[in-house]
Design brief:
Blueprint lengths: L2 H5 L6 E2 L1 H9 L4 E4 L3 H6 L6 E2 L5 H4 L9 E4 L4 H12 L5 E4 L2 H7 L10
Parallel strand pairs: 1-5, 2-3, 2-4, 4-5
Length: 116
């Protein structure tokens, strides 16, 4: 974690997978996946934007500020860090997905797969 990320440790809201599914189905949220490349290749939520957490400080400017951002990782810890960072940078709609991809998989939602 970078110093910039540590400095942005404000409280971040969370949503569960059911809420994420509802918002995605309604087209009301963008999904940001902050997992590492090797984790992404194992499976991802179709339509997600992939920016590994370590790249977020230099890539955040490319993310949509005018739309809510749900942030997901493997279990929910890195997504909380990322959501806090984004909130500290003016992304008022940043929310962490509680339980991350593990919860998404348990809910039997489909995964996209990256072909090597």
């Amino acid at each position: 974690m970078t110093a910039a990320m540590t400095a942005a440790m404000t409280a971040a809201p969370e949503m569960d997978v059911a809420e994420l599914e509802r918002l995605m189905a309604a087209g009301e949220v963008h999904l940001l996946d902050v997992r590492q490349d090797w984790e992404w290749r194992r499976g991802y939520v179709d339509g997600a934007i992939h920016v590994p957490l370590g790249m977020l400080p230099t890539m955040a400017w490319k993310l949509p500020r005018d739309w809510p951002l749900a942030v997901i990782c493997e279990h929910g810890d890195r997504s909380l860090v990322a959501a806090r960072f984004l909130l500290g940078r003016g992304f008022t709609g940043a929310t962490s997905v509680r339980g991350g991809m593990a919860a998404w998989s348990r809910s039997r939602q489909p995964l996209g797969r990256k072909r090597s």
